[in-house]
Design brief:
Elements: E1 2-3, E2 8-11, E3 14-17, E4 22-23, H1 30-39, E5 53-57, H2 63-74, E6 81-87, H3 93-100, H4 107-113, E7 121-124, E8 127-133, H5 136-142, E9 147-152, H6 166-174, E10 176-184, H7 189-197, E11 201-206, E12 213-218
Parallel strand pairs: 5-6, 5-9, 6-8, 9-10
Antiparallel strand pairs: 1-2, 2-3, 3-4, 7-8, 10-12, 11-12
Helix pairs in contact: 1-2, 5-6, 6-7
Length: 224
């Protein structure tokens, strides 16, 4: 079933971007991929603390946010998780709800957050959320924040090169707190080189499912 006006095609309940010819998450299991790549890849939940700040390139269906909040709650962490996401082409609330419906493990969270989809900002007792809409190449340099962990989740670099260029990866590094990390499903050489050029320590890790490798990065603490 297609909805070309929104740039979507559906494979069952999995949305596929017709603009980038790429699914929004793994056709195998999007939630498991999020856990492997973005949560474990950033050393979570071990690094959680009150005020921990996750930033993301590519909000998509909101699946990464739901997975991170579920982990936050399941870990028993107190305080507030901060989550900032950059998205050029937001899905409608209805599309997000449909895409999230394929994951009964987070159905309670999906229902709790559903009334907030479409809002640029909202707060829960344990979550402060902000979506910055527009081209991240323009919006990230303006952002005053620092992330403790980055989820680099744009569409595949071969299909969405703008979200993986060297200048933007340099901005990711600049907006990473000392000791912070980044993780992405891609192991593309130019992405790894861009992160290294920005001063991050980059490691190739085992990927999820059929993807042999993924990438993690670390920003060394500043010297005293």
């Amino acid at each position: 079933m297609s909805d070309q006006s929104n740039g979507l095609d559906w494979r069952g309940e999995i949305p596929v971007s017709t603009r980038f010819d790429d699914p929004y998450y793994s056709l195998e299991n999007g939630l498991a991929e999020t856990g492997h790549v973005f949560l474990s890849g950033n050393g979570l939940p071990a690094r959680f603390r009150d005020g921990f700040h996750i930033a993301e390139l590519g909000f998509g269906t909101g699946l990464n946010l739901l997975a991170a909040l579920r982990l936050w709650r399941d870990s028993g962490q107190s305080g507030v998780l901060h989550f900032t996401t950059f998205e050029a082409y937001p899905l409608t609330p209805e599309e997000m709800v449909r895409a999230q419906g394929g994951f009964p493990e987070i159905a309670d969270l999906a229902a709790e957050l559903a009334p907030h989809w479409g809002a640029a900002r909202f707060d829960l007792p344990d979550l402060r959320f902000e979506m910055i809409e527009g081209d991240a190449r323009q919006r990230l340099p303006e952002w005053p924040g620092l992330a403790d962990a980055w989820f680099l989740d744009g569409f595949a670099p071969a299909k969405n090169p703008e979200l993986w260029n060297e200048a933007l990866m340099a901005e990711v590094a600049r907006h990473t707190a000392p000791g912070g990390t980044a993780a992405t499903y891609t192991a593309a050489g130019h992405v790894r080189r861009a992160l290294e050029a920005a001063g991050l320590e980059v490691t190739r890790q085992p990927g999820y499912g059929r993807k042999r490798h993924m990438t993690t990065a670390f920003k060394p603490p500043t010297s005293c």
